[in-house]
Amino acid sequence: MNIFEQRESNVRSYCRSFPTVFHRAKGALVYSESGKENIDFLAGAGALNYGHNNDYIKQKVLSYLDADAMTHGLDLHTAAKEKFLATFSEQVLIPKQLDYRIQCCGPTGTNAVEAALKLARKVKNRTGIFSFMGAYHGMTQGSLSVTGNTAIRSGIESFAQVTFMPYPYRLMDGFDTIHYIESVLNDIHSGIEKPAAIIFETVQAEGGIVVAPIDWIQQLRALCDRNDILLICDDIQVGCGRTGPFFSFERANIIPDMVILSKSISGYGFPMSLLLMKQELDQWQPGEHTGTFRGYQLAFVGGTAALEYRSSTDLEKVVRLKETFLRTFLTEEIAPLHPKIEIRGLGLIWGIDLAALDDGNFAKKIATRCFEQGLIIERVGRRDTVLKLLPPLTIEMPILRRGCTILKQAIEECLA
Questions:
Q1: How many domains are there within the chain?
Q2: Do 112 and 21 sit in the same domain of this protein?
Q3: pLDDT for 379-413, tens place per residue?
Q4: Domain boundaries, position 92
Q5: pLDDT value at position 175?
Q6: Is the domain of 100 the same as that of 180?
Q7: Residue 13 has what pLDDT?
Q8: Final residue of a domain: which of 312, 327, 355?
Q9: pTM
Q10: H helices within 187-293, ranges in order?
Q11: Residues 127, 216 within the same domain
Q12: What average pLDDT does the chain have?
């Protein structure tokens, strides 16, 4: 029995799918202790958009450490935070005409979700929240309450203050989900009170790479405006350039009332989460939402460097080029392998839906075979029947092609 099985909690998860000891990583490649090379289509579940040990970001972090600069600062004013806030404002908010205040939350995305829900309830003086079927927002009490997976919510507590609405997914083909939500709000006999906010993802990543149509996102924004409801966009996994532009909601030309960022916002895999809110919503009292690690200094340094790197490399254009390759490969090379395979995605987040083939074992066999051949790929969606392609945005084209080739071969072998 190894030390992990002997001492680490049963709650461990990813290591069960990828049973090896990893040693080092660079770019889109991860190496085990044995020296085996693996192509990374997981990218820290979206925390490594800029790749492993990005040279530009690494040098900025090392220089900061070498100067004996602040490594912990609570929410004190520090030079690292000052530079990050200025850079984020100058490179992201001002060019996009977004007048958001920035709240540094606890180190992980779930804490920013908690903050958003608390603030929405405080501002609107209502307790209800609307979320969506298939949603994933985190594993702490508040964020779990707006997560749709009943298996992970089971036995925790009643979440009566949250109402789940239909998301525009193939299970709802032909069903007008926006009209349904409006009907619920306007029917005094629906039994459902007006919520303080609606929280949503423009792409349900853990939900199976379900991409919300642009017109649906726009209608959702309009519905919230008509009914005095705050719109919260969870951009934890699909923000920071994953879909092309910095924010995933930009393709719909809307402005959410709040935006939640984490994962790749630090640029280097450091823990960090932010809540962006419209100016008038910043109604917190000092210390009303707090935490010892609300603003990790190395994350500020990495986050600043990531924004600089994104600008200097024209990363949005790079993502568009790779998106074209992936879309073409998946629709022309993967989809024809079986008529029941469904392809969904945009930017550099794509899903191969195998739900129509079996209950999840088939997807598991493919992912296992991929790992044997040197490709790390995750399964998501209902019953884990969707293979999720989530490579670093910086992945080199030859490596991206090689990873896709391994994936195709694995599917062909398992189909045979």
A1: 2
A2: no
A3: 999 999 999 999 999 999 999 999 999 999 999 99
A4: 69-312
A5: 86
A6: yes
A7: 87
A8: 312
A9: 0.95
A10: 214-226
A11: yes
A12: 94
Residue ranges of alpha helices (H) inside 330-389 are: 361-372
Q: Are residues 284 and 329 in the same domain?
A: no
For residue 113, which of 296, 274, 303 has the smallest C-alpha distance? 274
251-282 pLDDT tens trace? 999 999 999 999 999 999 999 999 999 999 99
82 and 184 co-located in one domain: yes
- Residue 128 — pLDDT band, cuts 50, 70, 90? very high
Please list the helix, strand and coil fractions of the chain in percent, rounded to the nearest 5, in that order: 40, 15, 40
Per the structure block, which two tokens stand in for 243?
Answer: 């879909």
Question: Is residue 160 very low, low, confident or very high in pLDDT (cuts 50, 70, 90)?
Answer: low
The verdict on 21 and 103 lying in the same domain is no
- The residue count for the chain: 416
Domain end position, chosen among 312, 345, 370: 312
Q: Alpha-carbon Rg of the chain, whole angstroms? A: 21
Rounded CA-CA distance 293/280 in Å is 26
CA distance 66 to 91: 27
How does pLDDT run across 131-155, given as a tens digit for each residue?
A: 999 999 998 888 998 998 877 776 6
- C-beta of residue 262 within 8 angstroms of C-beta of residue 109: yes
Residue 205 CA, distance from chain mean position: 7
Beta-carbon neighbour count of residue 216 at 10 Å?
18
Same domain, 305 and 389: no
Query: Is the domain of 94 the same as that of 243?
Result: yes
CB-CB contact of 134 with 169 (8 Å): yes
Distances (CA, A) of 125 to 128, 228, 275: 10, 12, 19
Q: What is the mean pLDDT of residues 351-371?
A: 92
Euclidean distance between CA atoms 313 and 318, whole angstroms? 8
Is residue 279 a contact partner of residue 297, using CB atoms and an 8 Å limit? no
Half-sphere exposure of 113 (CA within 13 A, CB side): 28
Q: What is the CATH number of the domain that holds 13?
A: 3.90.1150.10
Given a contact cutoff of 8 angstroms between Cβ atoms, the answer to whether 145 and 136 are in contact is: no
Assess if residue 62 is contained within a domain.
no
The b-or-e profile of 124-144 (16+ CB within 10 A means b, else e) is bebebbbbbbbbbbbeeebbb
